[in-house]
Specification:
Pfam families: Tryp_alpha_amyl. This protein is mainly α. The chain has helices at 10-16, 21-24, 33-45, 49-66, 70-73; strands at residues 4-5, 8-9. It contains five helices and two strands; from the N terminus they run ββααααα.
């Protein structure tokens, strides 16, 4: 999981997004402000198409480990 995503590694991206876990696992009905802030931060790190693709693959692989519900993660597709 150490593949680089622009200036952020996959592991760093996953760790950064931990504030979103309650929403992504269905424990919270909506993303929190801290979650939105970290999504913006991770999104800003992936500035090229390749970086975004790498980030997407990284998060797809990590999601099951955290119990992420795919329908919740789709909310972030338009960011």
């Amino acid at each position: 999981m150490a593949k680089s995503v622009q200036t952020m590694t996959c592991q760093q991206a996953v760790t950064t997004l931990l504030p979103c876990n309650p929403f992504l696992t269905g424990q919270a009905p909506n993303p929190t402000v801290p979650c939105c802030i970290v999504v913006t931060k991770v999104n800003a790190e992936a500035t090229t198409t390749q970086a975004r693709q790498d980030l997407c693959e990284c998060l797809k692989k990590a999601a099951p480990t955290f119990g992420v519900k795919p329908e919740k993660a789709k909310v972030y597709d338009n960011l």
